[in-house]
Every structure is written in structure tokens, then in C-alpha cells.
Automatic annotation (TrEMBL):
PROSITE patterns registered for this protein in UniProt: CLP_R
Keyword Iron in record: no
The keyword DNA-binding appears for this protein: no
BP terms from Gene Ontology: proteolysis
Residues annotated as domain Clp R: 2-199
Alphabetized UniProt keyword annotations: ATP-binding, Hydrolase, Nucleotide-binding, Protease, Repeat
GO molecular function, one term: peptidase activity
UniProt protein name: ATP-dependent Clp protease ATP-binding subunit ClpC1
InterPro entries listed in its UniProt record: Clp_N_dom_sf, Clp_R_N, CLPT1/2
A Pfam family it matches: Clp_N
Length: 199
């Protein structure tokens, strides 16, 4: 399918992988595809997003804040509370001892080294340097981008088609990043207008 992707669309997918890696995400999800588009080479898509306050910087900030604010889910926190561990108290204690940004500065554990002390360590401070898989939701968005291109009679998948795929099957987090349901609908109209002008 990737042979049908235009250069800017391919770049957006590559950027999504790089952004997911930078954010230390275990998977490339729909929000990373959105971030790849916002940081991508398609000026029209970047402008359509920026006109609605959606930039690579705002998406990164939101994803970083979400990651650092909720390392465990609410069910995990409730389970720990039931055995006497209060995550808020642990966080306050760590910050009192090591400083306000102690958890943000915490380094990921090093990968174990091989038998003779070699291998295993990539020198990237625990950063995933290998292949990061796409989630089912992200794969669905890429498939939908092909469908959007076909439905419009376009012979290539452009960055705008990827955004239409995101708008057709957004995750709850992506809906929030896009300004809610109204933001999704307004953005869909703007992307179709952009493609119509380019045709």
C-alpha cells in the first residue's frame, strides 16, 4: 500500500514513528500520525491544523503531559490504594527528596548487557531504536486514507487523505487533540476544501 503514498504522506508516517520513539511510546498510535502530519512537509495540512490551534508543539506537549501525569491508569492506582500504596503520596515524597521534576528526569533502566558486557546497550538511554509497531487503530487510519483517496478519485494518497482517515476513525485522545466532535467536523470540511483547491 505504501507505494501509493505521495512523498509528504510517507514523510508524515516516518515522522509519526520518530515522534512515537521520542515520546517513548511502545506503539505508533493515531495521535502519532496526527503529530506526524502537524510536523510534516505538507504546508497546506500544517496550515489547516494550525488555523485551529493544532501544531506539532501543542500535540507533543499534550502527549508528554498525559504520559507524565498518568503513568498508571486509574484502575492501577485504585488497586495500589487498596493495598495501602498512595501514588500521590509517593510522588510528593520523591519530589520532596529529589526535586519537583524528579520523575520527569528519571532515566529509563539500561538494557541488560550480554554475557561479556557487550550488546544489549544501544547507547540511547533506554530509547527504543528498533521497529515500533502500529496499533490496530493506526493501521485502520492508514487503510481509511486509501479509501478516502479512492472515494475522491485521487490516484495517490496525500497527507490530506491520512488526515481524513484520522477524522473518520479518531481515538478519544485524538478527538480531544482536535477540539472535540465539532473540531473534527470543521476540520473535515477544511481538508476537503484543501483537496478540492489542489485538484
Amino acid at each position: 500500500m505504501f507505494e501509493r503514498f505521495a512523498k509528504a504522506a510517507r514523510y508524515a508516517v516516518v515522522m509519526a514513528q520518530e515522534e512515537a520513539r521520542t515520546l517513548r511510546a511502545p506503539h505508533i498510535d493515531v495521535e502519532h500520525l496526527l503529530l506526524g502530519l502537524a510536523a510534516g512537509r505538507d504546508d497546506g495540512i500544517r496550515k489547516v491544523l494550525a488555523d485551529r490551534g493544532i501544531t506539532a508543539a501543542t500535540i507533543r506537549e499534550s502527549l508528554s503531559r498525559k504520559r507524565s501525569a498518568e503513568p498508571l491508569g486509574e484502575q492501577d492506582a485504585a488497586a495500589l490504594r487498596s493495598i495501602g500504596i498512595d501514588l500521590d503520596a509517593v510522588r510528593e515524597s520523591l519530589e520532596a527528596t529529589f526535586g519537583a521534576d524528579a520523575l520527569d528526569r528519571a532515566a529509563a533502566p539500561e538494557k541488560p548487557r550480554g554475557r561479556f558486557g557487550f550488546g544489549g546497550g544501544s547507547g540511547t538511554s533506554g530509547m527504543n531504536t528498533g521497529h515500533i509497531p502500529f496499533t490496530k487503530s493506526a493501521k485502520k487510519v492508514l487503510e481509511l486514507s486509501l479509501r478516502e483517496a479512492i472515494a475522491r478519485g485521487d490516484n495517490r494518497i496525500e497527507a490530506a487523505h491520512i488526515l481524513l482517515g484520522i477524522l473518520r476513525a479518531p481515538t478519544p485522545r485524538t478527538v480531544t487533540l482536535l477540539g472535540g466532535e465539532q473540531g473534527v467536523e470543521a476540520l473535515r470540511s477544511a481538508v476537503h476544501e484543501l483537496l478540492d483547491r489542489a485538484a
